[in-house]
Each structure stands twice: as C-alpha cells, then as structure tokens.
Amino acid sequence: MRSNNLTTVDQPELALARKADLMDVPLELVLKQPSLSGAVALCVQLSGLDDKEIYLSLGIDAGHWTRIMKGDAHFPLNKLNDLCTMCGNESPLIWWAHSRGYGLVMLKSEAERRAEMAAAELLMEREKNKLLMQLLQGKAA
Fold it and tell me: In the chain, fewer beta carbons within 10 Å around the N or the C end?
C-alpha cells in the first residue's frame, strides 16, 4: 500500500564547493585584463578553486564553462555576485567599474556600524576592568 501523504523534511543545503578566502586583488592586475571575461577568468584563477567546483555550484553547464574560460562565451551576469563570493575576490566588479570610469568604495551597513561601535565600547570596558583588577591586586599584595 502506497501513501499519498508524503511529508517533506527540511534539510540544510550542502555546499557543493568550498569558498576561497577573501583577498584584495591589486588594481593593476585587474586593469590588465582586456575584457570582463578576462576579469572573470582572473577571479577564478586567483581563487585557487577547481573549475568543476565553481561551475557545478553556480549551475553552469561544463561545456558552456569551458567556452567562458576560453573567452568564446559570456559569463551569466546574474551569477556574478555568487562567483565573487565563492572566489573570494571582486575582480570582475572592479574591472567593470573602472571600464565605466568609476571606482569602488565598500559601504558599511547600519548593523556593521553598530557592531563596530559595540566592539569599541567593549574594548574600552575591558581595559577599565583590567586596570581596576591591577589596582585591586596591587593593594592586596
């Protein structure tokens, strides 16, 4: 007897690939690229990840990926954010901005600003606490 009442189980999604560590890429290296495709290839190369890890995670066909890396096909722009996140660098974004005459500035969100302020306040409180403990220990000794 088959049941028609199948329930789904929420399972966390497993990452198909590892992510590269974040890195700053020298501007000169990015600007040497002749095209956005070159900047995408640089992004991938600097990541140290295998091509297969990247194209499988991004849902790009292996044949299309090969053509992208050869410069014979275009990288899907709707996957550019995911590529940069996975590869740990912003080479394509930097190249594109400079090709249009713009520079990039990292923006901080309000949450990031608040977190930085809280971290600075915590550091000050820890320093006060350390000084008070030293004073107390100095009197007790």
Answer: N
- Amino acid symbol at 39: A
Two tokens, residue 82 = 């995911």
Contact (Cβ atoms closer than 8 angstroms) between residue 92 and residue 38:
no
Are 31 and 90 contained in the same domain? yes
What pLDDT is stored for residue 140 in this prediction?
53
* Tens-place pLDDT, residues 42-101: 999 999 999 999 999 999 999 999 999 988 999 999 999 999 999 999 999 999 999 999
Residue 83 near residue 43, CB atoms below 8 Å: yes
Q: Do 94 and 112 share a domain, yes or no? A: no
Indicate whether 113 and 89 sit together in one domain: no
Total of domains in the chain? 2
